[in-house]
């Protein structure tokens, strides 16, 4: 191509060189593109599966306990042996470890590949789950009858509150404080004198929910409990022992179905 430049009635012809890319055969181009693709590793597959499982469990628990404005951060612990595994060519399958205590502060999953690679690994997820809960707006003393001005709502990590948390002032106001509670300390069901709703050895209704489907069966309480307490319950049909939260008189709800 020739470009024409004008300057003081003199005209100069200046050649401009364009370099065309070399021709690359289609087969070689495809190979190059394949090389640039970042293949997913077994570790990444396991991580994604564990996060999906833990997120679903947290959402289920939040729905059961009627939590609002929930935020969470997941800490996933994957054994180093996963680096020896080839990426699975089939969707991963998750099951719960046998006799595992299902508590929110420590979620464990058996994750396995049933493709040609054939491997399995146990992963632990330790979540931080932040929910608005009732805290003491001032120091509360034993024997004090709780008033509305004694409490306020603050976000706290409920995964670390093994005795549960109170998420509604209506569940606490009017009850009697049975132990000292410091200012801004989360108010727990164990801090308040509440009537017993389940006696040790009592037959209780066990309620479990998964994927929007609710199931009910009978069980035997292995510990007495008040509303919000976590107790062990034996399923009278399967004879398995699970952890459940006391929801009402002679009614308990499984923390995680399965």
Automatic annotation (TrEMBL):
Q: Where in the cell is it found?
A: Periplasm
Task: Name the source's superkingdom.
Answer: Bacteria
Q: Does the keyword Signal apply?
A: yes
Family named by the database record:
Belongs to the FlgA family.
Q: Main role?
A: Involved in the assembly process of the P-ring formation. It may associate with FlgF on the rod constituting a structure essential for the P-ring assembly or may act as a modulator protein for the P-ring assembly.
| UniProt-listed InterPro entries | Flagellar_FlgA (IPR039246), FlgA_N (IPR041231), SAF (IPR013974), SAF_FlgA (IPR017585)
Q: Which residues form the SAF domain?
A: 131-193
Sorted alphabetically, which Pfam families does this protein's record hold? ChapFlgA (PF13144), ChapFlgA_N (PF17656)
> Can you name this protein?
Flagella basal body P-ring formation protein FlgA
Please give the biological process terms from Gene Ontology that the record holds: bacterial-type flagellum assembly
List the GO cellular component terms. periplasmic space
- Source organism per UniProt: Izhakiella capsodis
Q: Which UniProt keywords apply?
A: Cell projection, Cilium, Flagellum, Periplasm, Signal
The family database entries (Gene3D superfamilies) matched by this protein are listed as: 2.30.30.760, Antifreeze-like/N-acetylneuraminic acid synthase C-terminal domain
Signal peptide segment: 1-31
Q: What is its main location?
A: periplasm
